[in-house]
Amino acid sequence: MTTALRPHFSSAGLRHGARAALPAFPGFIMFAVAFGTAAAQKGLSLGETLGLSAFVYAGASQMVGLEIWQQVWTPSTILTIMTVTAVVNARMILLGATLQPWLKDEPLARTALNLFLLTEAGWLVGTRYHSEGGRDIGVLLGCGIILWLVWLVATLTGFFAGALVPEPRRFGLDLVMPIFFGVMLVPLWKGAKPALPWLVAGLVSLVVHALVPGYVFIIAGALAGVAAGMLIE
Amino acid sequence: MTSLGTIIASPWGSILAIAAMTLVTFLCRIAGVVVMSRVRITPRIERGLRALPGSIILATILPVVIDNGFPAIVALIAAVVAMAATRIDIAGLVVGLGTLAMIRAFG
């Protein structure tokens, strides 16, 4: 192991990471604008919308969270949104697991910040840099910070642009979330066999949706997909 | 419990909901690092986790799209086909939303 391959941190890395994040901008902007728009249409305040983007900072769970957002909260609805968020974001556990060897000697506070800013896009940029032999953790952090800022600005834009759209149904914007999810399914496609668990997830969610009120169908379907994934060699 | 219920029903409820979502999301973000420094993820668990993103997507959208009927189903198919052909996510979204708007306007 040469010294060049030892994990380190530099401000040059921060700048490099910010530049490397550029290809992820369009997807981030589109998703955050869609979220800001959907949140405004759902009647969330600006503070609530920005709070979700700044602190939760996980697009899929923010969108799903909107679906179950309440005007008046009860302990049970808070528990529901917490559970659904955990299930939707459970995939991040694997992202973090792959970063562990790179981060293990880092100061705790910086690792906490790096992981708070962890997204699929940022992880992808960092992982590619790491696999090419790079070990500067500044790259991961720089990428994470710039994507977080883009996310916030785009959320703000979407929130106000959404208020300008008079009749969301006419432009199909009420279904922007399911259609975008469908679009995001395409890059995940790695052939029919790895997609078999998805089919199981979809069928289980349809059955549960028909039988049980609320949003249990998301959790039930996702867990069924994971179980199918574990069983299929 | 009554006082807790009162607080949750007030505007603080939204802040509490955001805090709860933030907490579990952060736990998901750090869990991989914490767990990996202690245990190994077996190939079986890894296969399950790899199936998770696609499973979440289908489990989320399928009931919603079917509830919205024929226009939504056609729009979803159009979006997926456009994405597969162009590999540009914005193109997929625009085609999907455009198809939905067209069917609703003329259908």
Gist?
Chain A has about 230 residues and is mostly helical.
Written description of the protein model:
The complex is a heterodimer of chains A (233) and B (107). Chain A is an all-alpha fold and 233 residues long. Chain A has 2 domains: 186 residues, no CATH class; 44 residues. Helix content of chain A is 73%, strand content 0%. The longest helix of chain A is centred in the middle third of the chain and has 28 residues. Chain A is globular. The model of chain A has no long low-confidence stretch (mean pLDDT 87). Chain B has 107 residues and is mainly alpha-helical. Chain B has 2 domains: 39 residues; 56 residues, no CATH class. Helices cover 87% and strands 0% of the residues of chain B. In chain B, helix 5 packs antiparallel against helix 6. Chain B starts with a helix and ends with a helix.
Spans of at least 5 consecutive residues with low confidence of chain A: none
Number of helices of chain A: 12
Helices and strands of chain A, in order, run as: HHHHHHHHHHHH
Largest sheet features of chain A: none
The separation of the N and C termini of chain A measures 35 Å
Number of structural domains of chain B: 2
Helix percent of chain B reads over 70%
User: How would you classify the helix and strand content of chain A by structural class?
Assistant: mainly alpha
- Taking the alpha carbons of the first and last residues of chain B, their distance comes to 52 Å
Strands of chain B, count: 0
Summing up helix and strand content along with how strands pair, one would put the structural category of chain B as mainly alpha
